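Ligand-bound model needed. nicotinamide-adenine-dinucleotide.
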Amino acid sequence: MKKPKIVILGAGYGGLMTATRLQKFLGVNEAEITLVNKHDYHYETTWLHEASAGTLHHDKVRYSIEEIIDRSKVKFAQGTVTAINREQKTVTLDNAELHYDYLVVALGGEPETFGIKGLKEFAFSITNINAARQIREHIEYQFATYSNEIEKNDDRLTIIVGGAGFTGIEFLGELSNRVPELCREYDIDNDKVRVICVEAAPTVLPGFDPELVEYAVNQLERKGIEFKIGTAIKECTETGIIVAKDDNVEEIKAGTVVWAAGVRGNSLIEEAGFEAMRGRVKVDSYLRAPGHDDVFIIGDSSLIINEEINRPYPPTAQIAMQQGVTAAKNLSVLVREQGEMETFTPDLKGTVCSLGEDDAIGVVFGKKIWGSKASFMKKMVDNRALFLIGGPSLVLKKGKFNIF
Ligand code: FAD
Ligand code: NAD
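Prediction:
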């Protein structure tokens, strides 16, 4: 009998979870499963702020995909997806074309720039391993250049972070620890460095618990981070940013601008003709694209509504991984043509936001935590993600044990 072909695009949290669960649920002869990814490694997107600040080496953030998958059941194809052809049921890669009976799109998200002028050209975004390395090296280059130049350009030492959502705040937490180290390494007076966070909303971490937000802002301000709240970035230039607060427009000169103000779905989704909102497809309760019973879309490129508040769930690794499990279960039902597909509802355990290596805030199972307790919890959350995908051996290899 012909084996159905399942193609999984992307080996991030959603895609790798789908692949590792499918290899458990299905036998060798039940389906031909191919996992496609741009690189031969998976990276922990949730740790990229650390690699970007230079507080964690980028090799600690990635691991080999082939070491995780059961190669007797899942074939790995390294390649960049360039198109999804829904009618022909094919996927075009830069180096091959693949046919599918069932497709799982788990290609992650992209920075949302809202069409703001200059961001694509002049700002960095924390998007993948090499982007993180570039941010780290760019900041270090600015410090090294400052240290060596005769006529000092103080603006080199200003770092702007656009957006005080979870990504912006976690990156600021790492920077607050890294900047004093860089100053020591390059003989620079700490007072010369400015790290400024610009947030359009009236508060940091809009929507999060106000008491914890206050704790985070106090901790970061204590370590020298400046906040410009209720201030929107209007333009990014070669020499800095232009911001507006009410009617006041101001230019802030900076050597580094990091845009961390939100994500949209992967652009391949819209290019393929799927109906999408900011690149994200509102999937049905089984995680399939509307009108496409053979296409599952999960992770940052999917959109599901939280019926309680009638707003989309924020895209998170927590949800992407849970969707991976459901997609794998539902694919097994389709392949076997028996059983009932399951509907997807996120099972949210909470949110923990790091403020550097040794501090954090969070709400876990409805309980507020902060300080070293929250920091411990954050590392446990990071280790849990490794465990769910690669079991105890991956935790031992890549886990965070600097907990005391
Ligand atoms: P990803 O995990 O991003 O994986 C996408 C994969 O697709 C990647 O391997 C990529 O290389 C591959 N890919 C992309 N395009 C192509 C292509 N054209 N061809 C081939 N391969 C391609 N969420 C939490 O729940 N908790 C956190 O603590 C948390 N912290 C975060 C910290 C940071 C700094 C950031 C940026 C995000 C954080 N998030 C967190 C959000 C979380 O990382 C994302 O929601 C999650 O990664 C989405 O999973 P995904 O599987 O959709 O995509
Ligand atoms: P976000 O959308 O959560 O936050 C973006 C922030 O940028 C918002 O506060 C917004 O008001 C601000 N902003 C938008 N336009 C602006 C402008 N022109 N000028 C200044 N500020 C502007 O995005 P994110 O922080 O990148 O997070 C993306 C997703 O990843 C979210 O779902 C988040 O929950 C998740 N995430 C989770 C964690 C965690 O759980 N620890 C960490 C990082 C990211």
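The first helix runs from residue 13 to 25.
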